[in-house]
Write a structure and sequence with these properties.
alpha/beta; Rossmann fold; seven-stranded mixed β-sheet; two-stranded antiparallel sheet; 9 strands
Length: 241
């Protein structure tokens, strides 16, 4: 702890190691998910479908990294795209590239009409389609600092493929953030109409990915200090070129 940054990593580590706190937050995450808590929030008029702690964490990361390009897989209503674009607007540079297999017309229209659309580019198609990946690589090749956020299909096989395809685009010192790793903590019947669940989700994909790379590590600060997060152990920091 110091006058310039009052947080303490030692205190964060102690909280993260507190088994009672961990049990309480897991219970609250399960209960809040039952009430679709993440759907309660918007950013500059667009539904963002995120927990406030993750929104705050991503704001810190964007300010810290000051990326030239933020790549996000999964667009939905576009709230996250607008959120990232607004942060880049404050910083004074950078663009957001969003990819979704199905950009619904009413969402596209609302995003394109938003003042922050001037910093947003959208690609429609699967995030793992070679043609889409080639376009993403082209955008990334023109950026010095790249941040990647994965929030599309949450099945392990899909997320692992995204990690392998998009991980190399992340620049040293930046982040690869994988949302909805929390699926591993939720009841087995929480997603009856989805091809993911306990044992097959973003968290299991992250575990496998980290076993095969030394470019990324779990960020002790973010994975330790966030209590109500949909991305436990989903904040990966790039530590090597």
């Amino acid at each position: 702890m110091n006058a310039h940054d009052p947080k303490s990593q030692a205190q964060i580590d102690r909280m993260a190691a507190d088994g009672e706190v961990d049990a309480l937050r897991r219970e609250l995450m399960v209960r809040s998910a039952e009430h679709r808590y993440s759907y309660n929030f918007s950013w500059l008029g667009r539904p963002i479908i995120q927990y406030p702690e993750d929104i705050t964490a991503m704001q810190e990361i964007v300010w810290r990294v000051k990326p030239d390009l933020i790549i996000e897989t999964g667009i939905a209503h576009g709230g996250s795209l607008v959120f990232y674009a607004s942060l880049l607007e404050l910083i004074g540079h950078g663009r957001v590239l969003g990819i979704d297999v199905d950009i619904r017309p009413h969402n596209r229209e609302a995003i394109e009409a938003h003042p922050m659309c001037k910093r947003i580019t959208m690609l429609e198609g699967s995030s793992v389609d070679p043609a889409i990946v080639d376009q993403v690589r082209d955008h990334a090749g023109r950026a010095e600092r790249v941040l990647v956020v994965l929030d599309s299909n949450h099945a392990e096989a899909h997320v692992l493929q995204e990690l392998e395809l998009y991980g190399p685009l992340v620049t040293r010192g930046s982040y690869l953030v994988v949302f909805d790793t929390v699926v591993e903590w939720l009841p087995g019947d929480a997603f009856p109409d989805r091809p993911w669940g306990v044992g097959d989700n973003p968290m299991t994909a992250v575990r496998k990915f980290l076993q095969g790379t030394d470019r990324f590590e779990l960020d002790a600060e973010y994975n330790g200090k966030l209590l109500l997060t949909v991305a436990p152990n989903g904040y990966l920091r790039c530590v090597r070129d």
